[in-house]
Structures are given as C-alpha cells and as structure tokens.
Recover the amino acids of this structure.
C-alpha cells in the first residue's frame, strides 16, 4: 500500500472484531498480508479455524490467558499484554505485513493490561505503508485522536439481555 491509515473500531455494540476480521478477509482476497494480535483471547474460536485456510496471508496469535479478567489483572495477564506488544512491534518492523490488527487493545487498555502510551507507541512505530487496526470497547480519546477512521459500534438491542448466550458461528 502506498499509504496506510489508522482505523479504530470501538463502542459497546457487537461487531468490532467482526469488522476487523472482515477487513482481513478482504485484504487476503487482494493478496495483502495481515497480522492479527489478540490481546485477551485464548482458545479455539471459530474465526481461528476459518482464518487457518488463509495462513499464507493471515497470521493470528493469541496472548490472553483464556480467563476473563475480573478486577485487577494477574501477573500472567500483564505478561501476555507485554508479549502481545512485543509481537506487534516485531510485526510492524518486519516489513512482512500490509495490515496489523491490535484486537481487543481497547479492553486491554481499560483493564490496565497495557497503557494508552503503549498504543500510541505502536501508532508512532507504524510504517507509512502499513494499515493499523485497533479494536475494543473504550478505546481512549488520545488514541482516537490519532486515528484516521473511527467507528463506534452502538448497542441498541442485543439478545444477550434476554439470556441468549454466545452462539457457535455467530458470536463464538
């Protein structure tokens, strides 16, 4: 890409990760290489199985512990966050990727797993031809101010409020 932009997908509505993964598929269809770093996830989500089919173009790594963070993050949560940042730094510096996705960075920031300054550092390290995507609820104003595109997903209604749990192939 001649010029890569900074995109943020945030808000309390469904669709932030879905938007980033959809962009990944579009990019792969165009022959672009994508790196996805998932700050808080660990496990066999359906999107991982689908993205394995594009492993020549899409690389995805998980750095979470597989547990929800309730209260203060554990040492393992903090270590995972730092390992994720290290991997993103490497991906940005490698020249191997056209798109780098920081998945759930907003949530990691809100939980204190990473700091706002860490995300701003990744923005500063972004090479001119790389697109940087940042997702997650509660992305800070400081990060949004640096973005070229900000989309806020706003929940109007969600069936979760009626007791419907995550469904395979839809939310999981």
């Amino acid at each position: 890409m001649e010029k890569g932009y900074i995109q943020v997908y945030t808000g309390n509505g469904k669709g932030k990760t879905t938007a980033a993964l959809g962009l990944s598929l579009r990019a792969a269809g165009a022959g672009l290489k994508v790196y996805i770093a998932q700050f808080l996830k660990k496990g066999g989500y359906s999107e991982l199985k689908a993205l394995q089919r594009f492993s020549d173009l899409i690389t995805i790594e998980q750095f979470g512990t597989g547990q929800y963070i309730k209260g203060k993050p554990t040492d393992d949560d903090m270590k995972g966050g730092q390992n994720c940042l290290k991997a993103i730094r490497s991906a940005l510096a490698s020249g191997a990727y056209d798109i780098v996705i920081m998945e759930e960075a907003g949530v990691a920031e809100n939980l204190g797993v990473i700091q706002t300054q860490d995300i701003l550092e990744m923005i500063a390290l972004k090479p001119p031809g790389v697109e940087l995507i940042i997702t997650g609820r509660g992305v800070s104003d400081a990060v949004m101010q640096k973005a070229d595109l900000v989309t806020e997903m706003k929940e109007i209604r969600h069936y979760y409020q009626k007791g419907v749990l995550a469904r395979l192939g839809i939310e999981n």
User: Anything to note?
Assistant: The beta strands are 6-10, 34-38, 58-62, 99-103, 131-135, 149-152. The chain has a mean pLDDT of 93. The longest helix spans residues 75-94. The helical segments are 16-29, 46-51, 75-94, 105-111, 116-125, 141-146.
